[in-house]
Amino acid sequence: MISEKMQQLAKNGSAIRAMFEEGKLMAQQYGKENVYDFSLGNPNTPAPEAIRKAAIDILKETDPVTLHGYMSNVGYDDVREKLAASLNQRFGTAFAAKHLIMTVGAAGALNVALKTILNPGEEVLLQAPYFGEYNNYISNFDGVPVVAKAKLPDFGLNLEAMEALISEKTKAVIINSPNNPTGVIYSEEEIKALSDLLCEKQQQYGHAIYLISDEPYREIVFGNHTVPYLPCFYENTFVGYSYSKSLSLPGERIGYLAVSPSMEAVEEVIGAAGVANRILGFVNAPSLFQKVIGRCIDTVGDMSLYIRNKEVLYKELTAMGYEMREPEGAFYMFPKALEADDKAFCAAAKKHRILIVPGSTFAGPGYFRLAFCVSEATVDHSLEGFAALAKEYGR
Ligand code: PLP
Fold first, then answer.
1. Nearest-10 Cα torsion for 81, 83, 84, 87
2. What is the pLDDT of residue 76?
3. Is the pLDDT of residue 11 over 90?
4. CA angle 92, 52, 375 (to 5 degrees)
5. What is the tens place of the pLDDT at every residue in 102-132?
6. Residues 270-275: what's their mean pLDDT?
7. Which residues contact 34 (CB under 8 A, 6 or more apart)?
8. Distance between CA 31 and CA 239 in Å, rounded?
9. pLDDT at 24
10. Per-residue CA distances from 197 to 149, 211, 259, 276 (Å)
11. Ligand 1 centroid vs 216 CA: distance in angstroms?
12. 214 Cβ closer than 6 Å to some ligand 1 atom
């Protein structure tokens, strides 16, 4: 008999994954080119050639016993040294290799951070709408998610709501910018105000409140927007980074957890995080792709597909009567559903062979999420269906 906790989790499943599977069935039925699948954040841009070349070169050049062997649980020293130097150059930080733990993507990084800090019953503050997996990650360590609602209509940080929800039990706050699902980037002003609030609350309750910055979309930014780097603003910060989206490597499972050098009891935290990486069963991040990242530390992905898709979809959908904040980063948009019931709306979209995810999956009912990391053809050919759907709702 599976555990009671897993019975619940398995029942809830993932609406996004279910839709992805449904998309595959629809593709068999109607032909792949006639199904417009905006459900999953799976990049359609190939990984940069430098990455593929590095992987091949490393496989050819490196002694296989070393390459495929275990290494320190926190990852290869030389890779973490290069990474620290690169981050310090970009953000003026003071990372050393020891502050960086190579992880199994951002999901691995967040789980390591949460395992490191959470006691059962402690609370983790989120702002809705948010990436639904956070609930599962927090529940892995018997933590309790507490949810503030974003400021509407623009989904900005709602400091008042957060302040009201922070209590003695608050252990961490998770922030995700550029944001999935809204595409919002929090401004420096908002980040400063959040860090002031957390400093005040730490003083009031006499213990650390950690800020966990979930940053798989840091490099996917439109126009002149910039993404503040949280360790520059708040001492007790973890950064969960991933190469899944920026370099189109989601299946390779590679990222890192950065621990702010000025974090309280930093040595103890780093030691515990390395152990957490091991005992969660990751043991270490994949060896080959750690080495690939080491060789390609400053390689940037091609963002042109996302920029182009965002522009086309924002312009066309807005003209059809869909309302949304223009995405500033990541590859998602989060328009209002054309009826109050977002699930019914997404079901109606399916009749036009358009797969979009109900906002309620992200604790944002009344909206839908559209992942535009798809081919240009998918975007262009979907427009007719979006227009017909809008017409059904009298737009
Ligand atoms: N955090 C957010 C906001 C995401 O959207 C995702 C993946 O879609 C992840 C974390 C997990 O990313 P990774 O593939 O690096 O584990």
1. 160
2. 98
3. no
4. 90
5. 999 999 999 999 999 999 999 999 999 999 9
6. 98
7. 353, 381
8. 41
9. 85
10. 17, 11, 20, 29
11. 6
12. yes
Q: Is 250 in the pocket of ligand 1 (CB under 6 A)?
A: yes
User: Any residues with CB less than 8 A from the CB of 251 and at least 6 apart, and which?
Assistant: none
Find out whether the beta carbon of 41 lies less than 6 Å from any atom of ligand 1.
yes
Q: Is 127 exposed, middle or buried (0-12, 13-18, 19+ CB in 10 A)?
A: buried
Q: Which pLDDT score is estimated for 21?
A: 81
Region 326-354: mean pLDDT is: 97
Residue with tokens 């979006």: 386
- 180 C-beta closer than 6 A to ligand 1: yes
Does residue 176's CB lie within 6 angstroms of at least one atom of ligand 1?
yes
Q: What does pLDDT average to over the chain?
A: 96
Task: Write the burial class of residue 351 (CB in 10 Å: 0-12 exposed, 13-18 middle, 19+ buried).
Answer: exposed
Pocket test for ligand 1, best of 17, 176, 214 (most atoms within 8 A of CB): 214
Tell me, using a 6 A CB cutoff, whether residue 258 lines ligand 1.
Answer: no
Kindly give the number of the ligand 1 atom that is closest to the alpha carbon of 105: 15
Distances (CA, A) of 211 to 103, 234, 239: 18, 8, 8
Q: Which residues are 221's β-sheet partners?
A: 329
* pLDDT at residue 205 tops 80: yes
What pLDDT was estimated at residue 271? 98
* For residue 18, pLDDT beyond 80: no
Task: Report the 10 Å Cβ neighbour count for 209.
Answer: 22
43 Cβ inside 6 Å of ligand 1: no
| Strand 123-128, strand 144-149: pairing | parallel
Q: Is the pTM of this model over 0.85?
A: yes
131 lines ligand 1 (CB under 6 A): yes
